Amino acid sequence: MVSMAGIKKIVNSYHIHISGRVQGVGFRPFVARVAKDLHILGAVSNSPDGVHIAFNASAGEAAQFYNTIISQPPVHALITHHHMRPAPLFPFTSFTILPGTAASATSLLLTPDIALCDTCRKEITNSSNRRYQYAFTTCTNCGPRYSIMRALPYEREHTSMSHLQQCPECYEEYLDSADRRFHSETNSCPECGVPVYGPSLQEVDDCLRKGGIVAVKGIGGYLLLCDVSQSSAMRAKKNRPQKPFAVLYPTLEQAAEDVYLTAQESLELLGPVAPVVLCKLKKPAEGLAPGLDRLGVLLPYSPLLQLISSKYGGPLICTSANGNGVPIIYKDEDAVGIADLVVSFDREIIFPQDDSVICFTSKGRRIILRGGRGLAPVYLHKHSRDGVLAMGAELKSTFALTGEDYWLVSQYLGSHGTLETEERFEDTLKNLLQLLHKRPVQILTDMHPGYFVSKLGKQMAKLSGATLTTIQHHKAHFGAVLAENNLLQQRHPVLGIIWDGAGYGEDEQIWGGEVFVYKEGQMKRVAHLDYFPQLMGDKMNKEPRLSALALLQNFPGRHGIIRHYFNDQEWRYYHQLLHGHIPLKTSSMGRLLDGVAAILGVAGFNTYEGEAVMKMEAGIGDIVTHTYYDMPIHGDVIMWKPLILGVIADVERGMDKREIAYKVYYSLAHLVTKLKLHFKTEKVAFSGGVFQSPLLAGMMQGHFHRMLSPNDECIAAGQLACFSIQND
């Protein structure tokens, strides 16, 4: 309570309602401080639809109070709607922060988890501070939020810290309007803190120095840590022969010894999201990022990681605790025995999440590669029908929900194909629907009838009576980038370049090299890569050698360039397939690039998604050329054969394969310029996993994703966009 000296003369009572991301960001304490400064009497409270403020003031004082709150909100707040209205007269005698009220529905925007702030970081490393080496130090500016929410509004009693009572000293901070822990719902200290289970900090440090692997409970799930020299042991544990690891550095300065850091990358690492940032290596790091030129860099984003990292004093491999193809472990009982030592604590994770991953193009454009801790859930502010659920895609899955004035997109939930991933998707969806008191009345799914998410959506619609609508995969990609850039109401035509690995097409073929035009609320497929055989179904997605063979089908004299990828039996078998009838065709740009990588000798197999193409791009280095391979446009077909023949001719001439690879990327950029001229469009928007490439994205000019990944994580949002277009 903020006491006031005396009671001001009552002129009028007013009510302010503010909605958006206004809980878990210190909004009520901020309002109370402004009220104290302006000598305003009243009360502020949380509710499932935001923050409510009732107060007494003159008309001029009310306007000043209102304008100050709206124009100078807390740094992590995001105001979407606000209004002030006269209210029935009430004789307030002070300004009070009231407990939140529950309701059967909510329009509140959930707050992501916020990385450790500098002030808390200094406290835990200051031996004279009472929170010295306390692993759960937080304040109103940092700490877990989304990951610990059980119910709304955001109050301690509605989180997984509800069973922990604050000690008198912490409670005094909680009530002190001058303290930055004023009404901090996660406030605690060593006296009343979160119980820790497992080894001491010294035992963890000893284990790491002896080459051991330590599992540590993080904000969104368990992490595995080991010295960077122990990459082979970590690869064996995770069955991860080539996929790169992220590295946790104690400080930005230590990271700068191994990677080049731009100002933008540094700000991202030190910011409230603190994601994994892919940074250019100063020298190869084959144990950590085999064949790649970027390293995933991470700084300690929680007090526990800060203490472990600071004590160790050097870089540590930091990777999610999960097996190949299964989601991150987050339950304490599942973490038993997963490493040499396991550090756990008594704060349950309600919404598990992987670390977010981003990179930047050479021109500074930010690309989200994975949306998780610190970014999720993502909100797009759109007026829409309430209660629409979009089920997203099969790979890199997310789901999305609508409120009356927002779209919520979940965190990355993995790629389906294992029971564990499917169960995680269902559990997260169920928990979030319950948290937000949502009951879908409309469910959107991908057109592919065999997808787990399509089947689940169909089942949910049948059980609930919700209406079911299917949305084509690449149209959803286009819809997502249009929505993010506020182009759904665009009057002039927008060209959509949608390039990815695979998506079920309206002609029952596998699309992936698509060109659309959006005009006057209509989305039309106007061009696509020329079809080529989809050999062995999904197997081709994992074996670039098969993409190369399919591309070379009509050039039998050139097959020798990839012969070394096949044994004699395979060679005969696949050629028999090519000479027979292959009903399934693809227009995938991702598979085209896979084939180029195989032709250039980069790799015939992927041990992780996109491996061959990532290594091809990394190998280019500083090579630049402004020559290109022509890709003619014949009607609605983009011809790739001249490009492939050109690549082979350059290989046979002995051209540097790095230059050939760059030339391929430059050819795609030139193709986009041709497409803009061909279809007479000024605006162009890009989506699809191919645009995760910082090299290719950096060559393009136009509209890109800003809050979502260009990969299939954006599909759920795009399904909402397409549904919105259809129903406007």
TrEMBL record:
Organism whose genome encodes this protein: Chitinophaga silvisoli
Coiled-coil regions listed: none
Highest taxon, organism lineage: Bacteria
Keyword flag Metal-binding: yes
InterPro entries: Acylphosphatase-like_dom, Acylphosphatase-like_dom_sf, Acylphosphatase_CS, Carbamoyltrans_HypF-like, Carbamoyltransferase_HypF, DHBP_synth_RibB-like_a/b_dom, HypF_C, HypF_C_2
Catalytic reaction annotation: an acyl phosphate + H2O = a carboxylate + phosphate + H(+); C-terminal L-cysteinyl-[HypE protein] + carbamoyl phosphate + ATP + H2O = C-terminal S-carboxamide-L-cysteinyl-[HypE protein] + AMP + phosphate + diphosphate + H(+)
One example of a Gene Ontology biological process annotation: protein maturation
NCBIfam families with a match to the protein in the record: hypF
Name listed for the protein in its UniProt record: acylphosphatase
